[in-house]
Specification:
Blueprint: H1 7-28, E1 41-46, E2 51-56, H2 63-69, H3 77-84, E3 107-115, E4 124-128, E5 134-138, E6 145-152, H4 162-173, E7 180-182
Helix pairs in contact: 1-4
Length: 186
């Protein structure tokens, strides 16, 4: 699908922006009780564990949504949302649902920790090593949104280095409509 491995970060950040946009749309339509807060995307690096995490405070997902949007490869949540809110002016970046899978070009393992905005939602943890097998279980996440953690292959460990990620965020994501923080720095 992608020949340039670094694209995975752009795709994860685009998905995070979409999740925040979806939350705004849900709030505008009256589906959300309470405040949405300031939109934010956080990137955290752990060189020792060869991990990069991208977190958002967007709409989050339920276990059913993970089964539908993550486990069914080419099915896009953005497409469903576009149809549901097609009269809204906000646009979503992703349309094909495949960007998330670019992570597996660089990953030994990918994990999703998420909590939906829906009242009474149960937090969910999904993990996969790139094989057809995956694990879906309850999470202890307390805040709405999603964190994707990528444990990198040995040959891709450059993506856990702050200088490399700073360069990629500047290259691909400088004009995103949401602040992006790298280990606390905007």
């Amino acid at each position: 699908l992608y020949t340039n491995h670094e694209i995975f970060l752009r795709e994860l950040i685009s998905n995070a922006v979409d999740a925040i946009s979806k939350l705004k749309m849900a709030s505008l339509s009256g589906e959300l009780n309470g405040e949405i807060g300031e939109p934010e995307i956080n990137i955290h690096l752990n060189e020792g564990k060869k991990q990069i995490s991208v977190s958002d405070n967007g709409i989050g997902m339920t276990a059913e949504e993970i089964k539908k949007y993550i486990n069914q490869v080419a099915f896009s949540s953005a497409e469903d949302f576009i149809q549901k809110y097609q009269n809204q002016e906000n646009k979503l970046i992703g349309h094909f649902g495949l960007g998330f899978y670019s992570c597996f070009m660089v990953a030994e393992k990918v994990e999703i920790d998420t909590l939906s905005y829906k009242e009474g939602a149960t937090p969910v943890h999904w993990s996969c090593d790139g094989s057809p097998e995956f694990k879906l279980e309850e999470s202890d996440r307390q805040t709405r949104g999603t964190t994707i953690t990528v444990t990198l292959l040995d040959e891709e460990k450059e993506y856990a280095e702050q200088q490399r990620i700073r360069q990629l965020v500047t290259t691909y994501c400088d004009f995103m409509p949401v602040p992006i923080k790298l280990d606390g720095e905007t």
